[in-house]
Amino acid sequence: MRQRNNTVKIIGVLLITFFMFKKVLRLYYLDIYLFILYFTLFAAMLFGVNYYLKKTYFARLNVYLRENDRNIGWATAIATGLNFIVILCLAIILKMVNTLFIEDDTINNVFLDGAFRAVLNFTTFYSILLAIYFHITFSSLVKDQQLEEQKVITGNVSAQFESLKNQLDPHFLFNSLNVLGALIEEDQDKAVEFNNSLSKTYRYILDQKNKELVPLEEELAFAKTYIELLQMRFEDSLVFELPNEIKQEGAKVVPLSLQLLLENVIKHNKASSQKPIHILISESPDGYLVIQNTLSKKQTLDNRKGIGLENIASRYALLTSKPVSIEETQDTFTVKIPILTKIIEHMRIIDVPENEQEILVEAKKNVEKFKRFYAHLTSYIMVNSFLIVINMITNSTFPWALIPLFAWGIGLAADAMKTYNYNLFLGKDWEDKKIREYMDKHKTDGQKWN
Predict the structure, then answer these.
(1) What integer best gives the mean pLDDT of the chain?
(2) How far apart are CA 249 and CA 319, in angstroms?
(3) What is the 3-state secondary structure (H, E, C) of 319-344?
(4) Residue 318 belongs to a domain with what CATH number?
């Protein structure tokens, strides 16, 4: 389906460009071979300029568009203005080449007898087409970014669930409470310390609600607390090494990633004083946080193996192009997670009481419905204005532009009635009124029966 849509778009661009070359720019004696030559030159130059702009300013454009929805209009105007200059130069070149070599005329005629007006008309009309394209593209880009934000939120919720599930695992709690009970009898001070570490662990997990990134210092401090908890359980069966200082300023990581990885080590490896598990956490020069442990695998058939690693990799994939690296040798298992240094905009999260969640969901649906209608209306006005102007310039005797105006207008009217919940024959909110009427009648009949 997508391939068919792309083919239709390409054919549409070719037909529009051929019409613009022949009728608006007035390139005489234009046949199919000459059109292919002109179009190749025109498209290559236009594509090259826009590719350079995209490669140079795309990251800034993303940030700019996310700041405010109104920035879509400014970005469209700037991109259209730059392309207007490029198209004007290309139109002059094509007109000069066609005048000199095809029409066998003098170069002065390019700027006389309305020829330059044809160049300006071509540039204006093609720029309007590109403005429509840019507006649709930038709007889609903003919607995709909002969708990615929702995916990050969903990933965070999934990570919180996975972390809480690991922490609240009956086996984990059983061992922790056994250790705490034994410490109370043997060493009350150590029991208090164990209890404090356990409470800090849960507190940190709850504090990370709705956070997409946390400073590396906080995550390492939490890892140290969690490690102290593990060492009280396993004593000299575990050996840890942590970095003394952070090398990268402003370094951030996905929250609870270290807890998941450390829990993963304990879950899948045997720990004993004769063969302790050695866990090393360090920063690599290529901008990764390295978590490496010696291997002493348990013989188990745990189908959930790797859920934590997949969760971390998926959440990082939404935030950066740098992948999570997993390496396993005969003696060691290493996971490298990217250290992010760029500031990521905070999510716009609406906090409402639980009993109003359904109202919030319905409100979001209605807002999205109105946004789609206004986008449809904008496209309708821009495209039909463009077609009407072309109709007046090329052939004002036959108003062919009214055909798409009325045909598309029928679809727009249907969309408006659906958006505003209006029925042409039954009035506004007819469906809701009938539902309420039926419910009231059903309620009255029930009271009569009682």
Answers:
(1) 76
(2) 19
(3) HCCCCCEEEECCCEEEEEEECECCCC
(4) 3.30.565
Which of 54, 57, 77, 65 has the alpha carbon at shortest distance from 143? 65
Instruction: Tell me what percent of the residues of the chain surpass a pLDDT of 70.
Output: 73
Token pair recorded at residue 248:
């990268």
35 & 182 share domain: no
Distances (CA, A) of 131 to 32, 85, 123, 178: 27, 13, 12, 69
The verdict on 219 and 179 lying in the same domain is yes
In the chain, the amino acid numbered 238 is L
Q: Which of 338, 355, 390 is the last residue of a domain?
A: 338
User: Can you tell me the distance from the alpha carbon of 40 to that of 33, in angstroms, rounded to the nearest whole number?
Assistant: 11
CA dihedral 37, 40, 41, 45 (to 10 degrees): 180
Q: Which domain-ending residue is among 310, 338, 366? A: 338
Tokens of 143: 């919607």
Q: Which domain holds residue 220?
A: 168-338
User: How many structural domains comprise the chain?
Assistant: 2
Where does 209-341 show beta strands of DSSP type E? 214-215, 238-241, 252-253, 277-283, 288-294, 325-328, 332-338
- Integer angstrom CA distances of residue 446 from 157, 407, 443, 449: 44, 50, 5, 5
Cβ–Cβ under 8 Å, residues 219 and 159: no
> Is 297 in contact with 264 (CB distance < 8 Å)?
no
Q: Which tens digit of pLDDT belongs to each residue from 189-240?
A: 777 887 887 777 777 777 765 577 888 888 898 888 888 877 877 778 888 8
61/200 same-domain check = no
Asked whether the beta carbons of 201 and 236 are under 8 A apart, the reply is: no
Radius of gyration, CA atoms only, the chain = 33
Residues 286-305: pLDDT tens digits?
A: 889 999 999 888 776 454 44
